Amino acid sequence: RPDELFRGFLLELMEARYGTASTVFCTQFRQKDWHARLGGGVHADAIMDRIVHGAAWVGMGEMNMRRKLGAGSE
C-alpha cells in the first residue's frame, strides 16, 4: 500500500494533470478496490475523484498475460 508521502505525490500529480493531460494507469486490481488500496480517507477520495471522472476503462476480464505468455515458454 502506498504510504502518506506517495499518496500526497500522486494527488499533486493528478491535480496538475487533471483536465490538461492524459494519464494511463495499468493495474491488476479492480476499479472498485482502488480506494481501499490507496488507504481510504481524504487523499484516496481526492485521487479517485480526479481519476474516475472522464476515464475510459478497459477491462481484460479474467485474462492473465503472465500465464498466457509464460505457457508458451515452457
Please report which band the strand proportion falls in: under 5%, 5-15%, 15-25%, 25-35%, 35-45% or over 45%: under 5%
Tell me the Rg in angstroms: 15 Å
Which percent range fits the helix content? Answer: 40-55%
Number of distinct helices: 4
Q: Helix-strand pattern, N to C?
A: HHHH
Distance between the termini: 33 Å
Question: What is the residue-mean pLDDT, rounded to a whole number?
Answer: 85
Largest sheet: none
Low-confidence stretches: none
Overall 3D shape:
globular
Strand-pairing-aware structural class: mainly alpha
Question: How many runs of DSSP E, i.e. beta strands?
Answer: 0
Any idea how many domains?
1
Describe the overall structure.
- The structure is a single chain.
- This protein is mainly alpha-helical.
- The protein has one domain.
- The protein contains four helices and no strands.
- It has helices spanning 4-17, 34-37, 41-52, 65-71.
- Helix 1 runs parallel beside helix 3 (41-52).
- The radius of gyration is 15 Å and the shape is globular.
- It starts with a helix and ends with a helix.
- The mean pLDDT is 85.
